Amino acid sequence: MLDDQTLAFGVSAFISVLAIVNPLSTIGVFLSLTKNHKVDEANRIAFRSSLVAFCVLIFFSLSGFFLFQMYGITLEAFRIAGGIILFVIGMQLVFPSQNTQNISQGSKQIYLIPLAIPMTSGPGAITTTIVLASQAVTFGHEFVLWIAIFLSCMINYLVLRFSESIHERIGKEGLSVLIKIMGLLVCAVGVQFIINGLKVAFPIFA
């Protein structure tokens, strides 16, 4: 039975991971890359990209602590650096540039690059996963984090699978608004990571 603290951690982890995975921001790229594919082929690409992203994030959730030890990185330093990265990514979602739309279509394994990496499990998602894993003090926390990653990747798959319908229903402007809202959430998560890191690294800020 999960206690209230574990459930709260799970909900927070789910919101954080889903916000940075941000499947809505991948719809345009996915539709562009799969426009010449049959429906069943596009669905397989959506599934494979989400599965690869899930495996990548689970890997870093399990290995992040050992990477810290290997390179002598403190958790506080990673939280601050990761928070800065997330804030920058969030700002790019809120204020997108034309360059972010120029995605190469030359790869035959588009489910891997660019859909799984870096669109879904990019630096921001990996950073978020590692920081959340470092905050997991019990096995229950680790378990709900894995569930949060699974649910986020499952939602990513469903959004990509039905991306054409979503795009038709909410339109380009509606999609843009939703992406900006997700970007704002990513900014907030990044700022919170920075605050948490500064409180521990510099107790004067506590």
Give structural notes.
The mean pLDDT is 89. The longest helix is centred in the last third of the chain and has 39 residues, at 163-201. The protein has one domain (4-205): Growth Hormone, Chain: A (Up-down Bundle), CATH 1.20.1250. It has eight helices and no strands. With 206 residues, it is mainly α.
Mean pLDDT: 89
Helix content: over 70%
Shape: globular
**Low-pLDDT ranges:** none
Helical run tally: 8
Beta strand %:
under 5%
Secondary-structure element string: HHHHHHHH
Secondary structural class: mainly alpha
Distance between the termini: 33 Å
CATH architecture: Up-down Bundle
How do the helices and strands line up, and which of them pair or pack?
Elements: H1 4-21, H2 27-33, H3 39-71, H4 75-94, H5 111-120, H6 123-134, H7 139-161, H8 163-201
In short:
With about 210 residues, the chain is mostly helical.
Which short descriptors sum up this protein?
mainly alpha; 206 residues; Growth Hormone, Chain: A; 79% helix; globular
